[in-house]
Fold this protein.
Amino acid sequence: MGFKTRHAGIVAAVYGVFGILWILFSDWFTFVIFGVSEDFIYYSVIKGLLFVLISTLIIFVLFIALKRQFQEEIDVKEDQLDAQEDFAKSFRNERSVLFKTIETSPVPALLHTEDMRIIAMSDSLKQLSGYDLEEVPTMRAWIEKAYPEHAKRLYEDAMKLYDIEGTVDHGTERLRAKDGSIFHLHWHSAFVGHNEYGLRLMLSTGIDITERKTREKELTHISYHDDLTGLYNRRYYEEILKRYEPLENIGIVLADINGLKLVNDVFGHTYGDELLKYFADALRETFPMTSTICRLGGDEFIILMESYDEEDIKTIEKAIKEKIHKDDEDIIPSAALGHAKRQGDEPLRNTFIRAENMLYKDKLHEYNKQSGTIIQNLTHTMFKKTDECEGHIKRLNTLADALSKALDIPYEYERELRQLIELHDIGKISIDTYLFEKEGALSKEEKAEIEQHTEIGYRIANALPRLKNVAYSILTHHENVDGSGYPFGLSGKDIPYTSRLFRVIDSYENMTKEKHYRPKPLSKQKALEELKRKKDKYYDADIVDAFVDVISDHKA
């Protein structure tokens, strides 16, 4: 409208100026040319016609000129409109591509405007979170639903986003999905332009590091926890000790299992591991939840208590010992404990030493109390599970009496021989009972398994301080003087004296008594002849000679 009015004004102005000039000067011009004449009216008509023709021509020329200019301006405007339409089309295409890119992105992403409206959300984020744009149309709604624990802080941070020009690293936050699942996303935001209304656009993308966090957590757990018991390990103890160092009312409790080595030797390490797990559970169930329980290694455990009370500790220790004492077992393990409270500002290592001293005293007390019972239970188990019997032991002791007098055996050897008689086959309690009941000859593999009883017996005896002196004799009581025995193939005087004594009386006793695999025993005379025949091969010659003499004169 403004364009047409302007040009119409130009035409009117030109026409008006020309008309005024014609009126003012046309009569004068006629008078000058023709003077006063009777034909004035004629000339006036001519003058009028000329005016119309000239003015028409002028207007025509003006319109032609104005049309050309107007068309040029129209062409410019049309070019501008075409450019604007192309831009709008390009903008729509770019927006469509951007939305499509965001929606199909495998990376969780949000596109939002500075009025905090979310205008695009990636399908991967929808699947991960369980929310869609209808449920979270704004950044406030998204933050409140996905990050309820830190919604206020994160919303305040989000409001500051729209002033940035570059990229912002938000760090890692825990996202709570609609179904309650937890994911760890590391978020970045960047300014990506303006929308059609001029509002700033922000693109926020998240990297899902949940799997990495899970692996880190697992590695941390493995690093700080004992594989077998699930308790904290020595590494964690050494690190956590720094945190406990400033505390005043702190106490240390040390605990371990008496007889674990014996359990491992008799029943195997699998059973021993089960006992360790049982003991760890007992500690967990008995000590307060505020305590830190660590397995230092083997059967050694330490408990750090932030709030230490002497009477409470005594009650706890009593409960622990009752839990570990299982009367239905062949070997009854026991727990030893020691405790100490920090005195003043002493280093915790000093508190540890005092607790350790108490532990050792308790171990000695428990051992003295339990060792007799353990040996008695072992012997009972041997009679129950193997081919050994009390009658066999009694007959061996009778034979040992006679041999001791004949050889005038020193007291220490005689005492060791009596122990060997009682416990020589103690290792058989770990052998399959089937082998002691089998009719007929044993296979090569079965014989090899039976022969292991000397080594097992050695480990059992070696685990009990009261039996350490007889352990080696138990190990070697099947050695032969010619080196053909087991387990080492020792010969002559390399075989302990007690073992050589026992080898003779045990062979004689076995030959003269019924066995399930040899129903008919040898007579006394034939058994003695067998001993003489194999002296210097299986048996010590001096011991055989003395034994034959004393038994020949003996009524047994």
The CA atoms of residues 255 and 337 lie 4 Å apart. The chain has 20 helices and ten strands. The first strand starts at residue 109 and ends at 113. Residues 225-365 form a domain with the Alpha-Beta Plaits fold (CATH 3.30.70.270).
